[in-house]
Design goal:
By secondary structure, the protein is an all-alpha fold. It contains six helices and no strands. The protein has a single domain, classed as Four Helix Bundle (Hemerythrin (Met), subunit A) (Up-down Bundle).
Length: 132
């Protein structure tokens, strides 16, 4: 249970740092890039928290981020719509983590506020389940 709480706390901290920067409606290029980096590590922390919760509380190990999203949808932690967005979020995280492309950065930056809101809903659902 301690490892689950550690994972959830790490995801919450990551999300706070991400949300701090997302709030800026007109970021500089440097701030946009920093927000994208925070997005990357928030997605990583979030899916790993989901993975830990699924294994510990649901008895369902998830071996990948997309498997964790699908299992969270099946377990009711994500709606169908949020699960679809979470899958897209993971795709975008993979794109930003492995290459730098200015047009792609602009395109993904436009989605970051929606992704932050999704991450908040998902993490809140995981935290509620962890407490039950």
């Amino acid at each position: 249970m301690e490892r689950l709480n550690d994972s959830l706390n790490a995801a919450r901290k990551a999300l706070r740092t991400f949300a701090e920067l997302v709030a800026d409606p007109h970021p500089s290029v440097e701030r946009r890039d920093a927000t994208i980096k925070r997005f990357e590590y928030t997605v990583e922390a979030l899916w790993k928290a989901a993975q830990r919760l699924l294994a510990d509380k649901e008895g369902r190990p998830a071996g990948s981020p997309k498997a964790a999203v699908r299992m969270c949808r099946e377990s009711g932690f994500l709606s169908e719509e949020d699960a679809e967005m979470a899958l897209a979020m993971i795709d975008d995280r993979n794109l930003t983590a492995h290459t730098y492309n200015e047009p792609l950065a602009v395109q993904i930056a436009a989605k970051l506020a929606s992704y932050a809101a999704l991450a908040e809903r998902w993490l809140t659902a995981l935290e509620r389940r962890a407490q039950s």
